[in-house]
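Propose amino acids for all 440 sites.
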């Protein structure tokens, strides 16, 4: 039985995209029902995507579908269903062996059988079930809890994937239900848990929404503990007002001069990989001439963890990075004493964000996400009591309502780039006499 089920699964799997699928999709010559569906999904993206040129990833709504797409979706779902059945049968056959052949199977073989059965469920049956559910309902309204879209993913201008996605609008709903069903109690803690609007009740409400506490059966208990760090004494925030953020020559010059003023130990954060690469190309030689090591995510052929390890070990190195570095770096001491952010990190207006923004309060939701990103970035500066550092934002359009991202009492000043450079030098020399407008 198991051999027959395996043979049936292999035959049914021929409906899946095969070698050379990407070329066939571009040429409009698909093989099999799933490639046929993806060809039409790709055509819908190319016809409907707005705001992105073809050098970047693109996405489009699933409705209204172009001609032939719903029919192709039904055929693809049928083909996938024919693959799920033999795989499910094969899994049950394997599990049955555990009971039927108890006196014959040694521990190693039992573990292999159990691992294969789990893998069939996790890597094939469950994902196929998700695809089938989406495809069968493509011509129907998406359930309110979800958002669907088609996408073409590109890297370096080359297409690497075409697909359909379905995400929870509120992913904390299933998370909270799964956790609450098994837990006697839940503790959620973070230095950036609450928002920074200045309204304590609204800030806690945002925390409960973002963590999923609103979906739990009982109200959450709240607790707040003051930070042990003296942020006002040990940190400064400068918002630079005279560097055009759309002029990468000016942005690059600002990064170069600020990194040199701090003598290294600098983290440069970017909202887009293309901006990071452009700045890296413009400042690499100047930093090398000054004897400062420049590391860069998406440029150096190393993983993010390796880059951070090198940055942590070399006290005067500089590192350029995007979201993964902003949220994940932990570098105490002088190895990280300056952070420069290229611009206000507003959420990317993709289809998933559009659905969540509509659900969670519109502009208020955007502000909350942006304050959180700024909090996360600023939080990289001080990891222990004797850390000192400067945070620079190269964006004159930073609205005052986002200043709650910074700890109470921290000196935030809107200054020109020359003042920011001079005060950075003075701060690390031990004498900071800032000039410019102080934001209260």
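Proposal:
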């Amino acid at each position: 039985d198991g051999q027959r089920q395996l043979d049936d699964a292999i035959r049914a799997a021929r409906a899946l995209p095969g070698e050379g699928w990407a070329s066939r999709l571009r040429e409009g010559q698909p093989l099999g029902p799933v490639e046929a569906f993806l060809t039409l999904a790709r055509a819908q993206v190319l016809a409907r995507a707005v705001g992105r040129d073809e050098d970047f990833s693109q996405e489009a709504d699933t409705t209204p579908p172009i001609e032939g797409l719903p029919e192709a979706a039904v055929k693809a779902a049928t083909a996938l269903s024919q693959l799920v059945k033999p795989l499910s049968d094969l899994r049950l056959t394997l599990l049955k062996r555990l009971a039927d052949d108890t006196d014959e199977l040694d521990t190693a073989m039992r573990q292999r059988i159990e691992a294969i059965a789990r893998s069939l469920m996790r890597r094939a049956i469950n994902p196929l079930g998700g695809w089938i559910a989406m495809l069968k309902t493509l011509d129907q309204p998406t359930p309110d809890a979800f958002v669907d879209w088609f996408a073409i993913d590109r890297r370096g201008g080359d297409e690497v994937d075409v697909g359909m996605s379905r995400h929870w609008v509120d992913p904390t709903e299933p998370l909270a239900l799964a956790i609450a069903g098994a837990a006697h109690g839940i503790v959620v803690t973070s230095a950036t848990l609450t928002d920074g609007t200045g309204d304590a009740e609204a800030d806690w409400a945002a925390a409960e929404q973002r963590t999923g506490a609103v979906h739990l059966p009982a109200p959450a208990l709240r607790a707040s503990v003051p930070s042990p760090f003296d942020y006002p004494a040990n940190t400064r925030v400068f918002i630079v007002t005279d560097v055009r953020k759309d002029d990468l020559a000016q942005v690059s010059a600002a990064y170069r001069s600020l990194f040199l003023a701090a003598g290294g130990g600098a983290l440069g954060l970017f909202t887009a990989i293309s901006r990071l690469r452009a700045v890296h190309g413009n400042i690499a030689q100047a930093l090398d001439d000054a004897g400062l090591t420049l590391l860069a995510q998406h440029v150096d052929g190393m993983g993010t963890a390796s880059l951070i390890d090198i940055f942590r070990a070399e006290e005067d190195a500089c590192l350029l990075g995007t979201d993964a570095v902003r949220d994940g770096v932990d570098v105490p001491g002088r190895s990280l004493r300056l952070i420069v952010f290229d611009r206000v990190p507003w959420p990317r207006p993709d289809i998933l964000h559009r659905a969540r923004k509509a659900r969670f309060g519109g502009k208020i939701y955007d502000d909350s996400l942006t304050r959180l990103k700024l909090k996360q970035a600023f939080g990289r500066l001080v990891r222990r009591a004797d850390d000192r550092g400067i945070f620079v934002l190269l964006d004159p359009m930073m609205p005052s309502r986002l200043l709650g991202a910074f700890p109470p009492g921290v000196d935030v000043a809107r200054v020109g780039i020359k003042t920011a450079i001079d005060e950075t030098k003075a701060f690390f020399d031990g004498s900071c006499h800032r000039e410019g407008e102080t934001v209260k």
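The first strand starts at residue 58 and ends at 60. The radius of gyration is 27 Å.
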